[in-house]
Amino acid sequence: MTPAGSLLAAHDLRKAYGSTPALDGASFSVHPGEVVAVLGPSGSGKSTLLHCLAGIVVPDSGTLTYAGRDLSGMSDAERSSLRRGDFGFVFQFGQLVPELTCLENVALPLRLNGVKRKQAARTALEWLERLEVDDTAAKRPGEVSGGQGQRVAVARALVASPKVVFADEPTGALDSLNGERVMELLTESARSAGTAVVLVTHEARVAAYSDRDIVVRDGRVRDPEFAV
Amino acid sequence: MSIGHTLLGLLESGPRHGYDLKRTFDEKFGHDRPLHYGQVYATMSRLLKNGLVEVDGVESDGGPERKRYAITDAGITDVGAWLSRPEKPEPYLQSTLYAKVVLALLTGRSASGLLDAQRSEHLRLMRVLTDRKRKGDLADQLICDYALFHLEADLRWLELTGARLDQLAEVIAP
């Protein structure tokens, strides 16, 4: 069962690590250009849900549909290609390659998709400007502040015009002022590009940047879109 | 908010008519709840009677008479004392939400459903405020932030209470 018009939908997902259930019948959907917050206490299964939706973790059972295609039937290579081409990621920290400059980090998804070096650098710089961190272009991640690093990560997540950005506690390591600016820039950029955002957070102030929210508790997810 | 002290404070920068005072108050503090003219004039009469303001002039310009008010030395002292006096922190000990949760448990209704509905309502308002903050100036941002932090505190309480419902049901069982 897939809600009409949804871009990415999950139905009755189950995933256990050993004997511990992380997801216990989760249903979820996101429409193109929509920002959905996934809320819930620590250990509730929020991140596992995000990892399943993004094809990083394979659920034990349940259905996953992306743009009308059954994700669970895809091979590893197909899922990797989807992650590279259609999905973007922002995590709490540690996501930038420390040996590369911030510009090279942002250009990386384009380079992996076969874009020529000069064109990739030009587009990457535009995104750094948009995220107000073009002054970090020549610096390495270790030389910039946490807030700047997260904006670089947002630029990298959006640079290849993904259809969905998965953001897992993207402001978790930032003070509230920097966190709010990152959320403003992430949601504004995604909305103007028509990119959907799946935003995992335990902070209500961060969730308030979304269009709607769902709550995960004890591995169970309720999405009113699935309510009959 | 003490409207009297706020209007007095606005008068410190120079004499104003009642209409000017209302307009400035509404611009700076009355976004959702503008002052009624009646409130302004009743407050000014009280301040006048207490010697905190005086009538600086009366103009008519062919229409009805308009009084211009000026703050007195006693008024300036009063504003100073108000600004330096800390506000009493709200104890928040008479919570309607808590009472609703207890009654839901006592009457066998769904307390977690009640908490979920409240959470959803809080988040809805937080979205409205976040949107207003995004489009507004610094004053708007600070006013909305004040409300957002309080709503967030409520949400944390809702979450914590949700995790303790079983415990609470045992404690309040008749």
UniProtKB/TrEMBL annotation, chain A:
GO MF annotation terms: ATP binding
Keywords: ATP-binding, Nucleotide-binding, Transport
Pfam families according to UniProt: ABC_tran
ABC transporter domain ranges (all copies): 8-227
Organism domain of life: Bacteria
InterPro entries with a match to the protein in the record: AAA+_ATPase (IPR003593), ABC_transporter-like_ATP-bd (IPR003439), ABC_transpr_LolD-like (IPR015854), MacB-like_ATP-bd (IPR017911), P-loop_NTPase (IPR027417)
Protein name: ABC transport system ATP-binding protein
From TrEMBL, chain B:
Sorted UniProt keywords: DNA-binding
Entries under Pfam families matching the protein: PadR (PF03551)
InterPro entries on file: Tscrpt_reg_PadR_N, WH-like_DNA-bd_sf, WH_DNA-bd_sf
Lipid biosynthesis is among the record's keywords: no
Keyword Signal: no
GO molecular function: DNA binding
Residues of the Transcription regulator PadR N-terminal domain: 7-75
Top-level lineage group: Bacteria
Listed name of the protein: DNA-binding PadR family transcriptional regulator
Organism: Streptomyces clavifer
Classification of source organism: Bacteria, Bacillati, Actinomycetota, Actinomycetes, Kitasatosporales
